[in-house]
Fold Tol-Pal system protein TolB.
Amino acid sequence: MKPDFRRVRFSGLCAIVLGLLCFAPDARADLTLDITRANPQPMPIAIPAFQGQGGDGQVGAQVTQVVSADLERSGLFKPLDPRAFIQDPAALVPVPRFADWKLINAQALVSGQVTAQPDGHLKIDFRLWDVLAGIQLIGFSYNTTATNWREIAHIISDQIYKRITGEDGYFNTRIVYVSESGPPQRRVKRLSIMDQDGFNNKALTDGRALVLTPRFSPAPGAQEITYLSYAQGVPQVFLFNIDTRQQEVLGQFPGMTFAPRFSPDGNKVIFSLSGGANSQIYTQDLRTRKVTQITSSAAIDTGPCYSPDGTQIAFESDRGGTQQIYVMNADGSNQHRISFSSGRYATPVWSPRGDLIAFTKQEGGNFSIGVMQPDGQRERILSNGFLVEGPTWAPNGRVLMYFKQTPSDASGRGDSTRLYSIDLTGSNEREVVTPQDGSDPAWSPLLQ
């Protein structure tokens, strides 16, 4: 029997491109949003309810809500109030009356329809229109199971995001994180998974063993995570298949293992292993189980993370006297420090685009999330607070998620711990609502 949290795959036909329609005299105009500029103005976009009969209309309204929420939460789009709409959404087919949408200052318009199929599947059509140019920009039709409408809504959001910004979206993704409950002295930590917008929240572990640092495999289509668990009394690295719920211990090591992450191709796991007063960085080939030591120093080397091309590794080390970020080649050669400002640096995470490394910084009593280039240049702080940790990148490298803890009183003891996302520019910080406290998020690749 399949576990109830398993994502329903597309059945039969996945997507058909709907014909491009051009009705304006100047069909060369192109609606775009330049997201390389700092704080671009959100684009006004009209998203009327997708049409349908009876229950199909209900699903259409739900799809519209998810698409509107996705785009609004990105900070790059401003969905217009449906009460301002002049044209009846039912009259958008085959072509909108563009003059009505210009009057309410819409630049983009989304129209769609949901139709039940004889075999019980749903057919969901959508089109994206350039209101000012009076042309269709893209149009797709999806066939899927009746329960899979939310995933189709996220895919539609990704299609709109990519057509308008020119970059891949990040909406059809999932987050694995540590769900926390109970008093500070008896904190229960479960591994949980949810859609990137906080919906479809499911527990993956029962909370009997402490779990930490879950990480998704970056391999396309992979539904595998690695994480740290104290299930057998000492910290060990586990592999967990989300679809089958099968898990296994990577190996029995003489010391304690920490901070596991996958290689970009998903064929290796890199982690640190403690021995005496220090810890070193190792890799393990998941096919042969061969373990290779990468660093050998008298310091604490930990928190390793591959560059997206797999040729380099960022890690944290106190070999220089304080905790700093270093970069080395994948074979351990050419180790060099890249962080030189005041404060302590930890948890380096390479951007999927390869252009930046995110980190946690502690200076005085303040924690921050920031980014710097792989050569250590152009450090920027994006968010700070009482305790801010654990950055993870969206697959398009435009958005970061992390957790933030607030103090409970003047003594500085921790209170609630919540997940937040923020744009790479440092703007649009938003809480990602979870049923209980959440920490240590890890972002999946785009779902296939």
